[in-house]
Amino acid sequence: MMAWAEKEYGAALKVVKIEADANKATLEKYKVYGLPCFILFKDGQEVPESHSEGAMSKKALQDYLAKFGIKAAVTA
Prior knowledge:
32% of the residues lie in helices and 11% in strands. By secondary structure, the protein is an alpha+beta fold. The chain has one domain (2-67): Glutaredoxin (3-Layer(aba) Sandwich). The strands form 2 sheets. It has a two-stranded antiparallel ribbon with strand order 1-4. It has a two-stranded antiparallel sheet with strand order 2-3. The longest helix is centred in the last third of the chain and has 10 residues, at 58-67. It is globular and about 40 Å long. It starts with a helix and ends in a 9-residue tail after the last helix. The model has no long low-confidence stretch (mean pLDDT 94).
């Protein structure tokens, strides 16, 4: 689904995935307790209230991104 989101949202969204086991300090820093975890960043800073843990359907992911003003790229 992340490949779909990256394509669907184009320049409005950059998807970054990290390996949880190899990055325990990062998990602690961002208080990640469940996977998958979604956190939005803007200008290098975590977007307040964007931390979401647990699987999402495509519709739920679309709603989550829309809540933070991220819109799908316009396709011709």
